[in-house]
């Protein structure tokens, strides 16, 4: 055990070798490896630890005390960037991304970039997220509830649950090929496709993975 939930943030950690697992409320969140870091949330925000971090393999870790770390980054762009990462890790969308096959592969930096694009919405039962033929505006990361995708001529209805990414990436003039309707009241994080353009510009490899997944899923479910 390297970090325990609820304890003070007295140190910052940088992994030099080996791997660690992050556990929150008994659930696996992510695995960290060489050059990943942790412990910055409590150090930067002056709060208690929000997760457990356990050594998954033998590890070599650089440990910097909180006062030394804050002095080192004080007045630099690093301080602003790390605070953004720390705050983003408290966002409810962070663990949800780890439940999606594509989003779970994003790096810490990429998830931090994506968090500001995610806007939480509550949608009542029986409402359309979008209709077949609508202009593509958003992808929807499903937090709670169930959504049905209907209207594809060669496929039966497909149902989406927590962790699913509903929608498609558009090319110029492309529109939705199915309708997405809520089977229950749902909570989603809407991600603007226009904002994704900038994200993909900075992360072309991720764009390729999204496109490959979209081609294999004709139902608009990632």
Task: Give the helix/strand layout.
Layout: E1 11-17, E2 20-24, E3 27-32, E4 37-38, H1 40-45, E5 52-55, E6 60-65, H2 66-73, H3 77-89, H4 93-97, H5 108-114, E7 118-123, E8 128-130, E9 138-144, E10 147-150, E11 158-160, E12 165-166, E13 179-182, E14 186-192, H6 193-202, H7 204-216
Helix pairs in contact: 3-5
Descriptive notes:
This protein is an alpha+beta fold and 222 residues long. It folds into two domains: 11-90, Jelly Rolls (Sandwich); 114-216, Jelly Rolls (Sandwich). The protein has helices spanning 40-45, 66-73, 77-89, 93-97, 108-114, 193-202, 204-216, and strands at 11-17, 20-24, 27-32, 37-38, 52-55, 60-65, 118-123, 128-130, 138-144, 147-150, 158-160, 165-166, 179-182, 186-192. It has a four-stranded antiparallel β-sheet. A four-stranded antiparallel β-sheet has the order 8-13-10-11, with no helix packed on it. A hairpin with a 7-residue loop joins strand 10 and strand 11 (158-160). Helix 3 crosses helix 5 (108-114). The radius of gyration is 20 Å and the shape is elongated.
């Amino acid at each position: 055990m390297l970090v325990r939930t609820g304890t003070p943030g007295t140190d910052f950690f940088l992994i030099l070798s080996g791997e660690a697992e992050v556990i929150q409320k008994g659930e696996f969140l992510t695995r960290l490896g060489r050059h990943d870091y942790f412990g910055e949330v409590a150090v930067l925000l002056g709060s208690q630890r929000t997760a457990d971090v356990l050594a998954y393999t033998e590890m070599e870790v650089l440990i910097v005390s909180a006062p030394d770390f804050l002095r080192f980054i004080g007045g630099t762009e690093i301080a602003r960037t790390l605070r953004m990462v720390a705050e983003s890790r408290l966002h409810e969308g962070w663990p949800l991304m780890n439940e999606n096959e594509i989003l779970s592969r994003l790096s810490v930096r990429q998830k931090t970039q994506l968090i500001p694009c995610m806007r939480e919405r509550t949608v009542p039962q029986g409402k359309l997220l979008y209709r077949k033929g609508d202009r593509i505006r958003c992808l929807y990361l499903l937090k709670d509830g169930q959504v049905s995708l209907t209207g594809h001529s060669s496929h039966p209805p497909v149902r989406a649950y927590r962790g699913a990414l509903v929608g498609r990436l558009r090319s110029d003039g492309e529109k939705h090929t199915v309708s997405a309707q809520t089977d229950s009241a749902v909570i989603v994080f809407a991600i603007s496709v226009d904002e994704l353009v900038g994200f993909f510009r900075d992360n072309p490899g991720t764009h390729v993975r999204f496109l490959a997944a979209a081609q294999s899923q004709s139902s608009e479910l990632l």
